[in-house]
Predict the structure.
Amino acid sequence: MSKIYDVIIIGGGHNALVCANILSKKNKKVLICEARDECGGLLTNQLTNFIPGLHKNVTSSIDAISTNLRSIKSIALSETGQHLKLSGNKNEDQKTLEGFSAEDADNFLALEKKLSLFSKTLGAFMQSSPPRIMTNSFSDNFKIFKLGLNVRLFGKKNFNEFARMIGLNVADELEDNFKNPLLQGLIAHDSITGSNLGPRSPGTLINLLYRMATYDNSIFGGIKQNEGGVISIIKALENNIIKRGVEIRKSTAVKKCIIKNDRVEGVELDNGELIEAKTVISSADPKSTYFCLLGTEHLDTDFKRKVKHYRAKGRVAKLSLKLKKIPEFKGLDQSDLSQRLVVAPSIDYIEENFNFSKFENLSKDPILEISIPSIYDNSLCDEDMHVMNVQIQYAPYDVRGGWENKSAECINSVLSTIEKYAPDIKACVERQEFISPNDIEKDFNVSGGHWHHGEIQIDQLFMLRPIPGAAQYKTPLHGFYMCGAGTHPGGGMTGIPGKNAANTVLKDL
Amino acid sequence: MNKDLREEALKLTPFHSRTSLACRTNTWYRWAGYTVVAEYSTTELEYTATRNGTSVMDLTPMYKYDIKGERAKQFMNYLVTRDLSKMKDNTVAYVIWCNEDGKVVDDGTVFCMNQNEFKLCCAVRMLTWLKDSAEGFEVDIKEVTDETAALSVQGPTSCSTLKNYGASDVETLKPFEMKKYSIDGYEVLVSRTGFTGDLGYELWTDPKNAEAMWDSLMEAGKHLKIRPMGMYGLEMVRIEAGFIQTGTDFVSSEHALRPVRMRSPYEIGMGWLVHLNKEDYFVGKRTLIKEKENSTTERVLVGLDIDGDKPAHGAVVYNKKKEDIGIVTAAIWSPTLKRNIAIASLKRPYGVKIKEDIFVEIYHPEELEYRKIWATCKVVKRQFYTPERRNAVPAEVY
């Protein structure tokens, strides 16, 4: 066996990099094995360009990364050209909404206030390792007590509201508050992106709260984005940890963990090389981690059942277009094109899409989130061509007929849908690249191709993520940990799983 | 409407044409979806055949599984608590298996056909458990309950009966060994195993040979006191032998609704089957190591030797302060031992450190009234009856 490391991290996504940074700050010798030729995991795919960057509680505990956040608008597109543009600036948004309905404008602020209160409470709970239930540990019980206390401190009225909302579907709440279908559609879209739920599915409101909490409450209307994109954050993280002495081996796939006497002893690479370490952390998704890296012969039957039933089938596809010129959108000016464009004009539009996906079919009128990142980032322009990224919601992993036969149909529906808003789109497209959930699974070794490494739903959250009994970044095996999006608090580019995992490991080392 | 609805409700075993003819009492027992004979003529006579001659019992309803594949042995070793890594071809092992909380799912016998091919025989339906456990092992698991006819041939003259039947060198088989014989043109697998605590064998063959096998055996044992035995007789001999039965002496952890009803191997006297020093992991190992280290075992399964002659069916067990310390799971008056015996599940330390001043309260039915008997009892080894012939090699031939 070669040189001895304190910790080996499998995978080089942002959570792995954050984890390595915190460990190396405590003088641990860390090796990262990344199967691909670049770090950043799913983020390099740029499934979405609208990520504000790591959570502030994470950036404060790692080496400094310079970011330059800018606010961008969310524009809910309408076929009539009467789009709804929300900036996240309360006064501006109130004025915009008044144009449609004065009641909407009032309710918008009231709802944002209420949901922000709830999401902050949840957010605080998401910062640290989730408590184990039914133990005698003081810190575990204190965490549960604190969450309970915080909820109780809402006051009677808000406490009742919280209890009412926890299992609610987002459509009901939106219809109670708003008349503008574009506003309803936009917020409903943000509640269901990446999940296998429709706006009328129970539990979608908690999804919205969850997203608000992970994005520092900035999602409601406006959103923040790092000017250099997510890739610049990845590069900065990489540089910082290399300075700390972390070794990153790219194009180095781990075949499996070496286990002796129920303890991890290191990893075996695809090329047969053995590397020793007493601690191994997997940033891979739970199914790949347990079934491929660890090996099922080290797990109990009941545990394997839980891993097997962990829901992780991706529902998001991406179409990347190279454009000869930027198409003209009806009712949008040049500055609007660098914003987030959402095609989800009503709750019913989304729900109808969901109906197709429920039965593993594709909709002819898909839900889209469109960005043209080359407008603000010239480096993306390749041979003077602009880049348009389209995120397609409800692209079922198990699509009937298989993606090899269905991707052309999907691309066609996407372009025809964009055509309704930008009639010259088809003439502008020079090249296209389509990425289905199956491609994500293959290219990024994510079982099921789910961009959050598993559904974000109430039964797979908090002390249940990824599965009860192994939700505190630990696994049944000594010395083997997890730090990916499949752990609490889940996906998105928060870095919190990586940070919490590092702290858990440091406690044990 | 001439259809016999009984055939629709319960399956008939391949021996049915013979067992139904022999069954004078028409007393049947529902076992795992089959109907089998509970009592042919008199339970005591059938019991006596096992202890003094040869008894033949239809055990086709036992759940049977074929487990095949290159990693079949590794899988079996992972499934059960016992170390099977050195298991040889043509041998059988008694095993138990647990869930992740170290609670017993079931007990059964593993047959090693060869290093890539095993059979598992057990009391509780186990296909889902096996398939879920096999996740990642790439083994092929198939239920063969209906495709295998099985008879248990037990008793002091059982070896001679089998020799007459055609299994020429069967006396050389050691306990837990097996051998394939070709008899009258069909293949029979004979294993020296059983559930009676006596010298005995189990015979496995294709259902199409079942009737011929039954007839030949009855002929072979004609002068060796052969007699078919029903389920009631089996219950008597298995209690004397101290064998436990899933669903009677403990509840399978896959079936128990209340976690407190689940039992670890140490709580049902099966600790000897748990090899914590086995090199590979097995289901429940981590929890069982903790249970052993922290001494958190709560109960114990013991044998009770009870005063008097009234069987203590379902009796509550008390200490001298009349505190409830457990329950009798199975009880009989043993005709061979002339003792009133029982198997009981007790709360530790009773039955382990405290063996004195233990009582059972027997409710003995007497003509529509119950007579309450307060009987003292001794805690004894659960294996009440173990004759030397059970393990003698070569086996006794008459």
